[in-house]
Amino acid sequence: MTTATTPRPGIGAWLRSVVDWLDERGKAAWITLMVLGFVLFWPIGLALLFYMIWSNRMSGNSCRRQSRAGFTSLGSTGNSAFDAYKADTLRRLEQEQTQFESFLQRLRDAKDKAEFDAFMQEREKAATDTPGTSTHASADT
Q1: CA distances (Å), 99 to each of 94, 108, 112, in order?
Q2: What is d(CA 49, CA 68) in angstroms, rounded to the nearest whole number?
Q3: Model confidence over 126-140: pLDDT tens digits?
Q4: Which is nearest to 48 in space by CA: 61, 57, 10, 23?
Q5: Are the CB atoms for 34 and 45 separated by under 8 Å?
Q6: Averaged pLDDT, 116-135
Q7: Secondary structure element (H or E) that encloses residue 81, with its range
Q8: Quick one: average pLDDT of 93-117?
């Protein structure tokens, strides 16, 4: 009598599923696991750090999950109304960012001018308050 037995997955399959699960969650999951490894038993954290360096887990392309930056790419989604809305919104946000940066620069310039004017007034006041100094050349004839 033969019985069909299904082989149980080994440690390798279990580790592969853990790695896949962490890859789906991105760099934050790997870093969290590494920190927990250091907290629980430092060689575990060190081993995870070496594994992450060796397997390039911390590089931008290693994790399968794409970042949110991929969503804002200029590629077409196939929906022309949404693509037009997205392009208009991105253009408007870029314009607002440029205007805001210009506003901040004008504020910095105004602050610098005010500080410089205050410095010049203090300098002029110090020059007129000091006895024995003359601002006009005396003429001997």
Answers
A1: 9, 14, 20
A2: 25
A3: 988 876 655 555 555
A4: 57
A5: yes
A6: 82
A7: helix 80-129
A8: 94
